[in-house]
Design a protein that fits this description.
Among the domains are: 53 residues, no CATH class; 86 residues, no CATH class; 67 residues, DNA polymerase, domain 1, CATH 1.10.150. It is built from nine helices and eight strands. The C terminus is likely disordered.
Length: 308
Amino acid sequence: MFRRLRYFIASVVVVYASLMYFSPQLANFSLAVFLVLMVPVLILRHIFLDKLYRSSITMVPKRFVSGHNTISNEHCTVMYSPDEKIIVMDNVADKTHAKRMFTLTKGKVNINKSWNRVCRIFDEFITLDSLASFYSYDTKIELKTIEAKVKKIEKHEVNIDVSNSGPKFVEMGEITPDSYTKGTEKPREVKENFVELNSIKERPQEKEREEKTQSFVELQDIVSSHKININTATSSELSVLPGINIVIAKKIVEYRDKNGLFTNIDDFINVAEVKDHFIDKIKARVIMEDPKSGNSDDDTYEGRIIDF
């Protein structure tokens, strides 16, 4: 945002300087008209964007929309109250039946703009921790734990009346034999089979299976052997890089789609905003080439990558 503002101011200065070269009066008149029109334009732009941000839930796939201004997946639920607050809560409780949550209020951030941002990245892999990391760039996130109330089951005594439960006698003539035992009164006659000792052969010895020794390869050698092209990689591929998670990777792809391909690796590092001790590791893992074919960012089967 600040970069675009700098470009805009620089463009205004260049145009004003060019007009001053030809006609100072025309330059001053144009500057005055620009300043007068700039205020209503900014107001109209703010009103338009604010209305657009409120309807951001239309960008979320329908399978994640669980109610009016509410989106949820297997991991978390996000509830939005226009111009007031955003609440993020865990869907899965821990062993103590407690759930975590955090709240964003309009005093901390622009609620409508924050709702737009979360709707653009929400998918089946988003969790409370990833959203807390995503919003931590703008404000301090305070996680709260809500303890669930466990109802105690009251024990009720059961009294059994045993006054009429005395022993009952049955006449032997009333007992019928079990139908499954029919025909077993006499043992079955089985002829004895004799085996000649000479006909007995020794059982051949089984050959032991030869087990091949397994070769082990270091995980770091496998991962580092693949170079990632920063101009063609999808967000799932970029999330493998040290210090970059899936949220930051989507932010990088969005920046690349809007501003064009990266011209050098330093621009890529600046957009990623990673910590200093990750920079050398990232430079050793990436390359920069022009794409030969179209780039698609299909994150339907994205996984969660743990930073090395």
